[in-house]
Design brief:
By secondary structure, this protein is α/β, with parallel strands linked by helices. Helices cover 40% and strands 14% of the residues. The strands form two sheets. The chain has a nine-stranded parallel beta sheet. α1 links the parallel β1 and β2. The longest helix is centred in the middle third of the chain and has 20 residues.
Length: 302
Amino acid sequence: MPSLHPSCLVGANPIVWSNDDFMDLAGDVPLDTILREMRAAGFAGSELGHAYPRSPAALAGALGRHDLRLVSGWHSTYLASKPYVTEEKTFRTHLNLLKTLGARVAIVAECTRCIHGDKHAALGFGPDGKLTPRLTESEWRKFITGLKRLAAVALGEEMRIVYHHHMGTVIQCEADLHRLLAAVPEISLLLDAGHLAFAGIDPVAIARRYAARIGHVHLKSVRPEIAERVRREGWSFYRAVAHGVFTIAGDGCVDYPAIFKILERADYRGWLVVEAEEDPGKVPALPKAKKARAYVRAQTGV
């Protein structure tokens, strides 16, 4: 069994309880319920979700009542399509919230032309295996330049950007992920094996190739039979999630024992964040969260 560094902590994303993109998937679960059950399942910290307050004092109070730390939180950028000055302003506000509450990484995903929040937009698996949406060459240049500048902003605050490749965004296929990481060495990788597997990418190969650059880890897996239907029938991200394309680590097709071994060899010392992006109405959150937490403990020793 791999033994990860004792400084590693295990957190959870509130999407286990309440979906951020689709409010009909238990989007009305109260924050106190999420945090109480998160702590009961054995997690040390939480990422942000839509129900969380965005003022440092209010957020610190909510988390503190349940003895939870702030892990990090998603930040959507539009560097390829909006003025950089606007993007930096919103990023600095987000960064200040994270830093004030002790987080050390900022999760970033470029959302220019994203479709994952559109209930009806097909994910775009074409006959050539390529995924859409995509950036144009001029958009790539603007995106890369802006992301480098945001990385410098984060570094100035003693933080770092961890980039989240994500289905339905412009960084989801393997070639684009490699291109981004080569172009912006200032950023780290948020390794999300579930999104990699869903996109048809080998998560173990990515973890091995970028082991030294992994700055954050999301733990979820994929049910391959559902992913195949998504590709074959042109489902939207919403339909895929609602029908259970994602599941917890230890279930599905992702080889987590191999990934944990890679993290151990790389001396990874960050957070491991459990997710299970499926309909909480169909699969109750707390039993699933407890099962996922037990799996991580058994596999990693943390």
